[in-house]
UniProtKB/TrEMBL annotation:
<dbReference type="InterPro" id="IPR039762">
    <property type="entry name" value="Nmd2/UPF2"/>
</dbReference>
<feature type="compositionally biased region" description="Acidic residues">
    <location>
        <begin position="1017"/>
        <end position="1032"/>
    </location>
</feature>
<feature type="region of interest" description="Disordered">
    <location>
        <begin position="482"/>
        <end position="502"/>
    </location>
</feature>
<keyword id="KW-0175">Coiled coil</keyword>
<feature type="compositionally biased region" description="Basic and acidic residues">
    <location>
        <begin position="482"/>
        <end position="498"/>
    </location>
</feature>
<dbReference type="InterPro" id="IPR016024">
    <property type="entry name" value="ARM-type_fold"/>
</dbReference>
<dbReference type="InterPro" id="IPR003890">
    <property type="entry name" value="MIF4G-like_typ-3"/>
</dbReference>
<dbReference type="Pfam" id="PF04050">
    <property type="entry name" value="Upf2"/>
</dbReference>
<keyword id="KW-0866">Nonsense-mediated mRNA decay</keyword>
<dbReference type="GO" id="GO:0000184">
    <property type="term" value="P:nuclear-transcribed mRNA catabolic process, nonsense-mediated decay"/>
</dbReference>
<keyword id="KW-0963">Cytoplasm</keyword>
<keyword id="KW-0597">Phosphoprotein</keyword>
<protein>
    <recommendedName>
        <fullName>Regulator of nonsense transcripts 2</fullName>
    </recommendedName>
</protein>
<comment type="function">
    <text>Involved in nonsense-mediated decay (NMD) of mRNAs containing premature stop codons by associating with the nuclear exon junction complex (EJC). Recruited by UPF3B associated with the EJC core at the cytoplasmic side of the nuclear envelope and the subsequent formation of an UPF1-UPF2-UPF3 surveillance complex (including UPF1 bound to release factors at the stalled ribosome) is believed to activate NMD. In cooperation with UPF3B stimulates both ATPase and RNA helicase activities of UPF1. Binds spliced mRNA.</text>
</comment>
<dbReference type="GO" id="GO:0035145">
    <property type="term" value="C:exon-exon junction complex"/>
</dbReference>
<keyword id="KW-0694">RNA-binding</keyword>
<dbReference type="InterPro" id="IPR007193">
    <property type="entry name" value="Upf2/Nmd2_C"/>
</dbReference>
């Protein structure tokens, strides 16, 4: 792998260099012989140590090979796991795609089926219209030509004229139906009814017909008209008398009116009446109906029936459905030819006028309905419930409105008119937030609080997705529950009355509880109710035992009930429900199951949701289980409410929690649940507080977010919070109440706005923060190389992402360092910018020093150590950072600093993190010596922190910091002896500094560090020496020994780089460069070279020597003339890797000394002049300030005594009116 360039490679290079140095030393010392036996023993010990070292190296090599094998196996397993995960994802995507295709096909098939149904319906309308038109046309032609085709007198003599048959036929006309058409037609053909025309007319007019029987009546009237000439005039006269008599009726029969109007219209269409007579009669009746029905519109069904069956011929109406079918499918419907368009126009005007009045009525009712809804919402919001009368009144009004709306839509379709716009009331949404439809609960999408009813998708599946037992269990196994199911349907139809009665009953009980507060009066009823409940359970148990004694089924049921507490997941409880329904569904077993569910142990609260799911699953097949269990829980709840004792809190909580779980499965009605909560709030003390909070924590969210119980639940919650404020509750109860309230109605949380980034930046973040791992480093590196590096924005964003290393998982930081090491081979500047950013972030963290940045500071320190492990930075950078941790911002006098307060120990954690990451590689050469020196200073820093006054017996030094320090030091230097006090640590530092001074060639003991080594402090020489020695460790050529790197503050990136390939362009470039350099040298050869004068600081260890000599000055070029008229200068030379200093005595007569002496004198004179000028300015300012003060004192006027002439103000006695204030005199 290109990025796998661990520090082991670096260590190998160090081994090679150190081995070559050792060989050289061995060659130089090989000529010498040991001077004594002691030296021989030392050599033998060294040889045995080498042998032991070789064994140790072999053992390490075997362990490394073993680790590599394990790593390969683990990589292989991870790759297999990743492949399996990818295959699973592909499979899921394929299944999802197939499902989408299937849904798309189903939608297409559904649309195709709808089109076919519409086409079939259009063709059916077309066929029915033509058949009706042909039938009416043929019948009209026969009736109009009936006078010519009537039989003669001889024909009637052959027919039956008996009284019995004729009267029987006339009586049949009063009750004729469509099924009697053929029989009545045959009877009419064989009878002579010429003497019974009047009776037949009366029977037809008074007959109670249905809409479907009108066709049969028209057919018989046509037969009468075609045989008897007097029938049509008598029938017309009879209809007129009938309608005249109906005007006087106060409550007309709407169904009879609807049938009669269609009847006379059909008779007119088929030509039984003339157009003038028939249409005038129809118009008059229709006009009377519309005139009397303009306000109430109770006869709208009559008008709709007339338009539907006769409107096409009488009024020339074309329904919108017919028009759309004709346009869509190209069908030709029969034209209206029977009656002319001029005669049809009055009917059209009359019907459209009626439709206009109907739309006005609809709009008026719509506004009234909205007002009623608004008032009901206000009442619900304030009181929490509606009265029964108001609720019933609203339901009746809503039903009538829906009926009026449906009739208006039907008439608009028949008249081909548009429906009026019905505006929605927007004030409701503004007043009460999201539109809550309280009166039509359960509509999806109308009420959805943030988060929904359920906490998550699993909870929704648990409470809503139940097993359908009817799909798996044969119906024969639960047929005995059909009657109970039917009875329950009837009860649901009367749910409002039942709920109201239950609420009234509970209210009466609550009032009784409020009245009877004496415990002696409550003991009798409580004991009686408890005994009655226990007796009922015992009686049921005895009946069940008698019914199932000696049967094998009893053993099965007992085993089933014993296994119920083990059903602790959804699959087990669903399996138990199916098992019970298949094998144990009897009345006695259901009672036994209810008792087992009711007597669940009070400690097993975890079973309540699963038992509730069992009841809800069994409910479609056996509803009595839920009913019995709910009634028993209600009784137990009432018992605990009436008891008012302060014991058995676990049993009470179990009961209310069971009620809440059943309420979430909709087995326990929401009204009863809320009333239970209301009863608990009415006496909000002691155990009732815990019971109320338990009930709300169980089902409060469900009740609050359900549309039909939202407002009442919110009112009860507000009432509970008011009681909490009014009563002085215990802190435990206050916490319980607040937790329950905010669980039901959590406070609004501002949604975090996700920052939108370009797709390429999101992809970079995905690669670094999600995909990057030890296995995927090569893959991510390949993807990184494909990025558009020529785009400066992309490169800058990638650098920023790598610098922000705290966004990466802590265990994956080394992967980012590995990735960067591989990336530097292709993009060198990226490594420089990243390292620079990390160092800048570490320095910024020390300057800001805020606890919220601690995690990112730890990540940055870890990242810097990993960069060293992957040879991205040198050890000098690491040690400079380590010394800055224990020295930056620390006052030299030991006083507290804002950058490193006494109680802050985070810098110790940073040092330990950095050393734990890369300290294991500082085990040889100069880096080892530098680490040893740092650990000495680090111990002094630790003991200095421990010695501060903030740590006392009550507030000791954190033990975790001690453990962390000891772990780090034992890892790096297991045999190192730790200092035991601040004095010892300080002594070790002093000894170290003395050794350094000795190495530098001086024995001055005045060299001390006032505090810890800082950047640019007196310890620079020591650091410079160690850095130079370390730099030489990496030089493989012996000729580079004298090369130095003085104070190299830049970070060296040791990247692999690209290999250089020679080409012709390079040679041309080198020739051009040589030519340019030669020309430049020739131009500069004639110029004079100016030597810059530099004032270099004199080394510290030479100051004492100069002072002893009597002419020491802190500068190389500074000195004073001594007795021998000479000036001392210090000359700096370098021999090898060390600097050497020599003192020179230069006579004052020389040009160098004379110029320096004159310059020094001029600078001294300038300093004295500036000093005198500053002092003069100061004296002048003080004198001016004094004069201004005296002048201001002289100008201030004398203070007058204003109290001499003032009279004492009259003090009014207490309660006396203030006359000055009343009359506004402003008396003194």
């Amino acid at each position: 792998m290109p990025a796998e360039r661990k520090r082991s490679v670096n260590m190998d290079e160090k081994d090679v260099s150190s081995f070559s140095n050792k060989e050289k030393e061995k060659d130089r010392d090989g000529e010498r012989r040991p001077a004594s036996a002691r030296e021989k023993a030392k050599d033998e010990a060294k040889m045995s140590g080498k042998k032991d070292g070789s064994k140790e190296e072999k053992r390490k090599r075997l362990e490394e090979e073993k680790k590599k094998k394990e790593e390969k196996e683990r990589k292989k397993k991870e790759e297999e796991k990743q492949k399996a995960e990818e295959e699973r994802k592909k499979k899921e995507e394929e299944e999802k795609r197939q499902q989408e295709e299937q849904e798309k096909k189903l939608q297409e098939e559904e649309a195709k089926r709808q089109r076919e149904e519409e086409k079939e319906e259009g063709h059916q309308l077309h066929q029915e219209a033509w058949e009706r038109h042909q039938c009416r046309k043929e019948l009209r032609s026969k009736n109009q030509n009936a006078q010519e085709a009537r039989p003669e007198e001889a024909f009637f003599s052959r027919l039956d004229s008996s009284l019995k048959k004729n009267t029987a036929f006339v009586k049949k006309l009063r009750t004729l139906t469509e099924q009697q058409r053929d029989a009545l037609s045959n009877d009419f053909a064989s009878l002579n009814l010429s003497k019974y025309i009047g009776e037949a007319v009366s029977s037809v007019v008074e007959a109670k017909l249905k809409i479907s029987d009108v066709g049969c009546a028209v057919h018989l009237c046509s037969l009468f008209h075609q045989r008897y000439a007097d029938f049509a005039p008598l029938l017309l006269q009879a209809w007129k008398k009938h309608f005249e008599a109906r005007k006087e009726d106060k409550a007309p029969n709407v169904s009879k009116l609807r049938t009669d109007l269609r009847f006379i219209a059909e008779l007119t269409i088929v030509g039984l009446f003339t157009d003038k007579e028939g249409l005038s009669l129809i118009y008059e009746q229709l006009k009377n109906i519309i005139a009397t029905d303009r306000e109430t519109h109770t006869h709208v069904s009559v008008v709709i029936s007339f338009c539907k069956h006769c409107g096409d011929d009488v009024a020339g109406l074309v329904p919108r459905k017919v028009k759309l079918a004709a346009e869509k499918f190209g069908l030709a419907f029969p034209p209206s030819e029977i009656i002319s368009s001029e005669k049809q126009q009055p009917f059209q005007n009359l019907l459209r006028e009626y439709f206009t009045s109907l739309t006005k009525h609809l709009k008026k009712d719509h506004r009234e309905l909205q007002n009623t809804e608004r008032q009901n919402r206000r009442i619900l919001h304030s009181k929490g419930e509606l009265s029964e009368d108001r609720h019933k009144q609203y339901e009746e009004f809503a039903t009538s409105y829906q009926k009026l709306l449906a009739n208006t839509q039907s008439l608009a379709d028949l008249l081909d008119e548009n429906m009026p716009e019905l505006p929605q009331d927007k004030t409701v949404q503004e007043e009460h937030g999201p539109g809550i439809d309280i009166f039509t609960p359960g509509k999806p999408g109308e009420y959805d609080l943030e988060g929904g009813i359920w906490e998550d998708e699993d909870a929704r599946n648990f409470y809503e997705n139940l097993v359908d037992l009817k799909a798996f269990v044969p119906a024969i196994l639960f047929k005995d529950n059909e009657k109970s199911g039917q009875s329950k349907d009837k009860e649901e139809a009367r749910e409002g009355k039942d709920v109201a009665s239950t609420a009234e009953e509970l209210e009466l009980e609550l009032e009784a509880l409020d009245i009877t507060e004496e415990p002696l009066e409550l003991e009798g009823p409580d004991e009686a109710e408890n005994e009655e409940l226990a007796k009922k359970l015992l009686d049921d148990k005895q009946e069940d035992e008698e019914a199932s004694t000696g049967s094998h089924l009893k053993l099965i049921v007992d085993a089933f009930i014993q296994q119920l507490p083990n059903c602790v997941n959804r699959d087990l409880i669903d399996k138990a429900a199916m098992d019970f329904c298949m094998n144990m569904n009897t009345k006695s077993n259901r009672r036994k199951l209810v008792r087992a569910l009711f007597t669940v142990p009070r400690q097993r609260l975890d079973l309540l949701p699963f038992y509730s799911r069992l009841v809800a699953t069994l409910h479609p097949c056996m509803s009595d289980v839920a009913e019995d269990l709910c009634s028993m829980l209600k009784g137990d709840f009432r018992f605990h409410i009436r008891k008012k004792d302060q014991i058995n809190i676990e049993t009470k909580n179990k009961t209310v929690r069971f009620i809440g779980e059943l309420a979430k499965f909709k087995m326990f009605s929401k009204t009863d649940t809320l009333h239970c909560l209301k009863m608990l709030l009415s006496d909000f003390t002691h155990h009732h507080i815990e019971m109320a909070c338990t009930l709300l924590e169980t089902c409060g969210r469900f009740l609050f977010r359900s549309p039909d119980s939202h407002l009442r639940t919110s009112v009860l919650l507000e009432q509970m919070m008011r009681k909490k404020q009014a009563q002085h509750l215990d802190a435990r109860y206050v916490t319980m109440v607040e937790n329950a309230y905010y669980y039901c109605n959590p406070p609004p949380v501002e949604k975090t706005v996700k920052k939108k980034r370009p797709p390429l930046q999101e992809y970079i973040r995905k690669l670094l923060y999600k995909d990057l791992s030890k296995v995927t480093t090569e893959k991510v590196l390949r993807q990184m190389r494909k990025l558009p590096w020529q785009d400066a924005e992309v490169k800058g964003y990638l650098i920023c992402c790598m610098v922000n290393i705290w966004n990466v998982k802590y265990n994956s930081i080394h992967c980012v360092a590995n990735l960067l090491a591989g990336l530097v081979a292709y993009q060198e500047d990226v490594g420089i910018h990243v390292v620079d950013g990390v160092l800048e972030d570490i320095r910024l963290g020390m300057e800001v020093n805020q606890p919220k940045f601690n995690q990112r500071r730890i990540s940055s320190a870890k990242f810097l150590g990993e960069l060293y492990n992957y040879r991205m930075v040198e050890s000098a950078v690491i040690f400079r950072t380590l010394f800055s941790f224990i020295s930056f911002g620390i006052n030299q006098d030991g006083s507290p600093s804002s950058l490193d307060p006494p109680e802050h120990l985070f810098r110790i954690r940073l040092v330990c993190t950095l050393l734990d990451t890369c300290g294991q590689y500082f085990d040889r050469g100069s880096s080892k010596r530098k680490l040893d020196c740092f650990l000495i200073y680090f111990q002094r820093y630790i003991w200095w922190k421990k010695s501060l006054d903030v740590w006392t017996k009550d507030h000791p030094f954190p033990i975790d910091i001690d453990y962390m320090i000891s772990d780090t030091l034992e890892l790096l230097r297991p045999k190192m002896r730790f200092s035991c006090s601040l004095e010892e640590a300080t002594k070790q530092v002093a000894d170290l500094e003395r050794e350094v001074l000795v190495k530098l060639g001086t024995t001055d003991t005045t060299f001390t560090l006032a505090c810890f080594p800082q950047e640019g402090s007196e310890n620079e020489e020591e650091e410079r020496e160690e850095e130079e020695e370390e730099n030489t460790d990496y030089l493989t050529d012996s000729n580079k020994e004298n090369e130095t790197d003085e104070e190299n503050n830049e970070v060296t990136i040791r990247g692999g780089g690209l290999k250089h390939v020679a080409c012709a362009e390079d040679e041309d470039f080198i020739q051009a460069l040589d030519k340019m350099m030669l020309e430049n040298l020739q131009q500069r050869s004639g110029e004079t070279v100016k030597v810059h004068q530099l004032d270099v600081a004199i080394p510290l260890q030479l100051k004492s020597q100069l002072k002893k000599g009597g002419s020491g000055q802190p500068c190389i070029s500074e000195g004073d003339a001594d007795i021998s008229e000479t000036m001392q200068f210090v000359m700096l030379t370098r021999k090898g890797n060390k600097q050497q200093y020599k003192i020179l005595n230069v006579p004052l007569s020389s040009h160098l000394a004379a110029n320096h002496f004159n310059q020094q004198q001029a600078e001294q004179e300038e300093r004295m002049r500036m000093k005198k000028l500053t002092l003069d300015i100061n004296e002048r300012q003080e004198q001016e300030d004094y004069q201004e003060m005296m002048q201001s004192l002289a100008q201030r006027p004398a203070q007058a005594n204003t109290n001499r002439e003032r009279r004492p103000r009259y003090q009014h006695p207490k309660g006396a009116p203030n006359a000055d204030l009343i009359f506004k005199t402003g008396g003194r």
